[in-house]
Amino acid sequence: MRVSSRALLAGALLALVLGGCATAYQPEGATGGYKEVRLADDTYRVSFAGNGYTSRPVVLKYFLYRCAQLTLQHGYTYFEVFSARHAALRGPVEAPRFMRASYTVPTYTYIPAGTVTRYSATGVIRMYRKDMMIVDSNLFDARDVMATLGPEIRSGQPVPGIPAKYRRIEGKFPPMPADTRPTPSASPPPETGPVRLEDLKDLMHQ
């Protein structure tokens, strides 16, 4: 039985999609991986895409690990994960002004023998210094994430399950709140020092 060129092409494309084995923890390439876009000094859009052999829990582990790694690389200690919806870009970036919300997204590729499912996770992280007191269920300690997930990820064979303390990463990411952090004042604060009599002259005549 003759195999058509279309079937051969589909087989070749499928081989490229699957890559023969699960996606490794790596920068984004033909078989998947992580990437990030800078939104601000302390804010990044992070994503991890897997191939047809990479399960949803493993994709989420890789995503969480990359968030932690990026946080420590930039001198921060904690990070929060938010939806990408309405995350305004601040500063020069290679992306649109607003981005679609996304968390764990399955992509289905249909082939004659069945269906290939690929998972990807995307979110916006905001990073914080270690001296900030923040109480939030969506807050992660980057050092703890690296210590917990590091050994199995470096081994190249992460187990499918997600540790209970990180299980909240399996849900939808909440929308990022409005930025309420204080901004530098346009005018310098008034000088302090001893009060002179001339300064009180107007008050004395009231």
What does this structure look like?
The chain is an alpha+beta fold. It is built from four helices and six strands. Strands 1, 2, 3, 4, 5 and 6 form a six-stranded antiparallel beta sheet that branches. A hairpin with a 2-residue loop joins strand 4 and strand 5. 26% of the residues are buried. The model is unreliable at 7-19, 87-103 and 182-187 (pLDDT under 50).
Write the layout of secondary structure elements.
Layout: H1 5-18, E1 33-40, E2 43-49, H2 56-73, E3 78-82, E4 104-111, E5 114-128, E6 139-141, H3 142-155, H4 201-204
Antiparallel strand pairs: 1-2, 2-5, 3-5, 3-6, 4-5
Helix pairs in contact: 2-3
Number of strands: 6
Radius of gyration: 25 Å
* Uncertain parts: 7-19, 87-103, 182-187
Largest sheet: 6 strands, antiparallel
As a percent range, the share of helical residues equals: 10-25%
